[in-house]
Amino acid sequence: MAEYDKTALIRAAFAAREKAYAPYSHFKVGAALLAQNGQVFTGCNIESAAYTPTNCAERTALFKAVSEGITEFSAIAVVGSREGEVNTLVTAPCGVCRQALFEFGGPDLIVLMAKSETDYIETTLGQLLPYGFGPKNLAE
Ligand code: THU
């Protein structure tokens, strides 16, 4: 992935974070998922008064893409912090999102966990979810 693409993807994640619906945790997250065809799908966290239905930003982006027929991805950028604050920690995808992404991205999906456009950790889904269980495990 080119340096420019990373910056653009992180910027898209920050823009998506602006749309976060997080009146309970006040922790706003944005994600930008880059498809192999170059399309970018963004998502934010969407909370619920019943708490359990809450959807993370990463899965919002993933489900938007898959529901549009796009299932092959190369990278995802994730940003998160409390409303009105800048985080000292990067936001790493939760366990459920790692599993959901693994279904389509596999271990090679690049994950950018960013504090700013220039300050980020770059890793892979395989690092975040070693020995991930995926479609191949169910293949004959
Ligand atoms: N959240 C995400 O959207 N993505 C993550 O990677 C971590 C957590 C959301 C869920 C909830 O709305 C809020 O952040 C606090 O957990």
Percentage of residues in strands: 15-25%
Tell me the strand order in the biggest sheet: 2-1-3-4-5
Are there runs of 5+ residues with pLDDT below 50, and where?
none
Give the fraction of residues assigned to helices: 25-40%
Describe the biggest sheet?
5 strands, mixed
Number of strands: 5
The span between the termini is 33 Å
Bound molecules: tetrahydrodeoxyuridine
Query: What structural class do the secondary elements suggest?
Result: alpha+beta
Could you state the order of secondary-structure elements as H and E? HEEHEHEEHH
Radius of gyration: 14 Å
Average predicted local confidence, pLDDT: 96
- The geometry reads as globular
Helix count equals 5
Question: Could you explain the architecture of this structure?
Answer:
The chain is α+β, with helices and mostly antiparallel strands. Helix content is 32%, strand content 24%. The chain has a five-stranded mixed β-sheet. Strand 1 and strand 2 form a beta hairpin. The longest helix has 15 residues. The protein is globular, with a radius of gyration of 14 Å. The mean pLDDT is 96. Tetrahydrodeoxyuridine binds next to strand 1, helix 2 and strand 3. Tetrahydrodeoxyuridine (THU) binds next to strand 1, helix 2 and strand 3.
Tag the structure with descriptive keywords.
alpha+beta; binds tetrahydrodeoxyuridine; globular; 5-stranded mixed β-sheet; 140 residues
Compact overview of the structure:
This protein is of the alpha+beta class. The protein is built from 5 helices and 5 strands; from the N terminus they run αββαβαββαα. It has a 5-stranded mixed sheet.
